[in-house]
């Protein structure tokens, strides 16, 4: 295989395959992941699959593009006038706090769940604890997959390298919740109600007073109460995380790395590809988004010489302006080809599809339909 000519990624074959159950779109910020995820979902629905697209990006672009006023934590049917897919299209946006609440209600009894939900420490970590968003994204994906309602789940991811943090989220949260501080906070409950000092010695008393001075004694008390209530449901918490992680590594999942043909974005794409390979995740290919191919033949040397002479003799003419524009477009296309070829040399087995840029931003279903066509190479 010529290293400069990668294997072509066949998008229609991917989304038509009934074995494909989950598509995860990842990549750095500003490369069009949300638009690509929505376009893939639209095309899959048009081709007969019952599809749901889940966005983790807090921006409202997806709802606007789908003709919806807003998205929330439950899938909403997308069926505006003129959109009549052979399948179905649903869309939703992750609500981190609501998903955490639902998980608590599912794993804890009613009384214990009410204690947890009312706890100020829980109310803080459920919206701002490091890794919570990524874990809840996995939780929501697991919930959607468990219903069996969907032929295909398309996942949009956060706009940065943190898009892959959900691969670490279960282990990170397990480490925190199994860590020394958490064990100390939950010690009274595990010791039959005896005081912290009696359980872990005077050293912890000094530690607790120090921490209380920094973060406040009430926060320590809230944290301890939260951990004691949460402890009984943590096994189910980790078990579900592992189930979703296994789903991500299964043959029914496909990871698509999205990038634009720019140096920084292609470097980030290389990082994502390497990370997915290291984690043994099912990497399916790269989408080179917003490319600028030149369909006309590159001018011959004689034509270029003549064009340069025309621009020099009559720089304000329309013909000169068109020639300059064409020359700029050729230069952009050649630069993009070099960047993509460099990526392909480094990752020769990764299939790739280029998606030509549209003349205007995508803001409706018609635009998503057009992006779907370009993804499919139609």
TrEMBL record:
InterPro entries xrefs: ArsA/GET3_ATPase-like, ATPase_ArsA/GET3, P-loop_NTPase
Species classification: Bacteria, Bacillati, Actinomycetota, Actinomycetes, Pseudonocardiales
Organism the protein comes from: Goodfellowiella coeruleoviolacea
A molecular-function term among this protein's GO annotations: ATP hydrolysis activity
Domain of life: Bacteria
Keyword Thylakoid attributed: no
Protein name per the record: Arsenite efflux ATP-binding protein ArsA (TC 3.A.4.1.1)
Residue ranges constituting the ArsA/GET3 Anion-transporting ATPase-like domain according to the UniProt record: 20-183
Keyword field: ATP-binding, Nucleotide-binding
């Amino acid at each position: 295989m010529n290293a400069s000519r990668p294997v072509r990624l066949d998008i229609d074959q991917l989304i038509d395959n009934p074995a494909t159950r989950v598509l995860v779109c990842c990549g750095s910020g500003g490369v069009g992941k949300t638009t690509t995820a929505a376009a893939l979902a639209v095309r899959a629905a048009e081709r007969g699959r019952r599809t749901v697209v889940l966005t983790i990006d807090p921006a409202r672009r997806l709802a606007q593009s789908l003709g919806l006023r807003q998205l929330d934590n439950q899938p909403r049917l997308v069926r505006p006038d003129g959109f009549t897919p052979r399948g179905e299209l649903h869309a939703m946006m992750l609500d981190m706090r609501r998903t955490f609440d639902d998980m608590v209600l599912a794993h804890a009894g009613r009384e214990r769940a009410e204690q947890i939900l009312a706890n100020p420490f829980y109310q803080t970590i459920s919206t701002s604890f490091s890794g919570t968003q990524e874990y809840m994204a996995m939780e929501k994906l697991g919930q959607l997959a468990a219903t069996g309602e969907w032929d295909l789940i398309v996942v949009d991811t956060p706009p940065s390298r943190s898009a892959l943090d959900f691969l670490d989220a279960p282990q990170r949260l397990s480490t925190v919740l199994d860590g020394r501080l958490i064990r100390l906070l939950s010690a009274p409950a595990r010791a039959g109600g005896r005081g912290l000092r009696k359980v872990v010695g005077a050293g912890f008393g000094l530690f607790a007073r120090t921490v209380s001075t920094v973060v406040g004694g009430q926060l320590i008390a809230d944290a301890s109460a939260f951990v004691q209530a949460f402890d009984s449901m943590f096994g189910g918490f980790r078990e579900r995380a592992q189930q979703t992680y296994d789903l991500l590594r299964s043959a029914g999942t496909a990871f698509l790395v999205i990038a634009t043909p720019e140096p920084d974005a292609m470097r980030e794409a290389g990082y994502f590809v390497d990370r997915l390979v290291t984690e043994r995740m099912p990497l399916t290919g790269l989408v080179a988004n917003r490319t600028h191919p030149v369909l006309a033949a590159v001018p011959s040397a004689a034509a270029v010489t003549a064009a340069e002479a025309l621009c020099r003799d009559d720089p304000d003419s329309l013909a000169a302006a068109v020639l300059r524009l064409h020359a700029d477009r050729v230069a952009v296309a050649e630069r993009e080809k070099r960047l993509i070829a460099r990526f392909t040399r480094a990752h020769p087995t990764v299939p790739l599809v280029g998606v030509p840029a549209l003349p205007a931003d995508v803001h409706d279903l018609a635009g998503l339909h057009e992006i779907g066509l370009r993804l499919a190479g139609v």
